[in-house]
Amino acid sequence: MDTVIIQSYRTERVPRWMTRCMDSVKRWTSAQGYDYRFVGDEIFALVPDWYRERTGHALPLQTDLARLILARDALKEGYRRAVWLDADVLVFAPKRLALPEERNFYFCREVWLDYVNNALEISDRVNNCACVFAAGNGFLDFYIDACLQLVRETKAPVSPLLIGTRFLTFLDRILTLPRLATVGLLGPYLVRDIGAGGGAFLDNYKRHFATPVYAANLCASFHNRSFPLPSGGAFTVDDAAYAAAIEALLAAGENFIAGR
């Protein structure tokens, strides 16, 4: 019982591109000799009733807490390491992706690119789309308690980012949280550029991230939303956009950044 990889998603009306992401994780998990665990909608039963009431229909907030409980339970079962990967994480260079061992917990490095007031904005954040927790770490129980307290004490409506990106990024300013160096996060502009074969947003991302990326979160939360383009007009991150990005990432493999 060394390592278990945990994922969750609905089991009906699953987009083809999302299935491809989860399949890529399953193949990588098998190649590494890890155990794989999938949880459906029963994941929401893991969070307290009052927490579900406070978060309303914000299922990401419920999943943010439930993933930590799943990891804690797996460690209690005897696993040395419990890893959560969002369902929209694509492993596109499986032979190169390896989990680090230097620290006993890790999160995902988020380099976020946005287009605001006719200008490109880049920010470094910490994201929980990929989490690694080793047995004996002291952070997991603290994080669970912090999530409960934040949701309990925050006035409604509770931001979907409250206990994930927002809390972790704020905490990182004080503690410098350990990040997975080879797992990235690709927002809407990056998904578009990757699928189109390149662009200014992708060029800036590569310069800023600067290290190899072998797996990435494709940000399904932006599915079917539209965003403005610097050249005018707008684009929509639809199923075709995600599918095109997946094809390009799989073709690039370990050269996604190194081959720029």
Keywords summarizing the entry:
six-stranded mixed β-sheet, alpha/beta, 23% strand, 42% helix, three-stranded mixed β-sheet, 260 residues, Spore Coat Polysaccharide Biosynthesis Protein SpsA, Chain A, single chain, 11 strands, 9 helices
In short:
The protein is of the alpha/beta class.
Strand count, sense and barrel status of the largest sheet are: 6 strands, mixed
Number of domains: 1
DSSP helix fraction: 40-55%
Number of separate helices: 9
Assign an overall shape: globular
Rg, alpha carbons: 18 Å
Backbone structural class? alpha/beta
CATH class: Alpha Beta
Oligomeric state of this protein: single chain
CATH fold-level name: Spore Coat Polysaccharide Biosynthesis Protein SpsA, Chain A
Order of helices and strands: EHEHHEEEEHHEEHHEEEHH
The CATH architecture is: Alpha-Beta Complex
What ranges have pLDDT less than 50 throughout 5 or more consecutive residues? none
